[in-house]
Amino acid sequence: MKILITGATSGLGRYLAEQLAREHDVLVHGRDRERTEQLAAQLGARAYVADLADLDQVRRLASEVPPVDVLINNAGIGYGKEREVSAQGHELRLAVMYLAPVLLTRLIPAAQVLNIGSLGQASIDFDDLMLERDYDGINAYRRAKLALAMATFDLAAERPDLRVNVVHPATFMDTNMVRGGGGTPLNTVAHGGEATLRVLAMPGTGQFFNEDQPAEAHADAYQLALRARLREATEPLLR
Length: 239
Description:
Strand 5, helix 5 (about 135-160) and strand 6 form a beta-alpha-beta unit. It is globular, with a radius of gyration of 16 Å. It has a single domain (about 1-239), classed as 3-Layer(aba) Sandwich (Rossmann fold). The chain is built from 8 helices and 8 strands, in the order E-H-E-H-E-H-E-H-E-H-E-H-H-E-E-H. The chain is α/β, with parallel strands linked by helices. Helices cover about 40% and strands about 15% of the residues.
């Protein structure tokens, strides 16, 4: 199988790339060219470089990548203490962990999509989608992860030809993101990685997994009216 992994140079993405490259044709994405090309050389994989905080680079990435069997939208960004924006002026966490995966999924032909989500989800304030008031990094992260779950469920309903799920690999894995955010690691990357690989091999679509067990996402993710509102708000952001 041909598998594209975004955010593959560290943490969960790197673990998945290392494991999957043993049997599959892996395409590794990263933001840093040197690190991405080093990983690709190590694994015998192909390297793709783009900053997912820039939707123009997301489009370029999609134009360079061939059709794949599996797209793993793994790239993420930690909480952060101050509000930051993307190249297009969108709140940074929403841009990287929601807008970029949605756009990549639209543009790259694939048979299966696995979105890396989180149990940490928070309701979206559609009157302040970009968190311009009372910014909080944890809330920004959680809203982006809820938006990704909502998009996953929408896509599963719209595309019966596509197997698409979202997984919370493990709580507080020992990653740079967790440590950088002041968290205390509770699980190894291997623990979350193995759970993710098990989900990748499972049949079915439109599901949220906590590690490798079917679970419930935030209640808002199942509200059709809220998902419709998110779709409506998303379209102008992707133009």
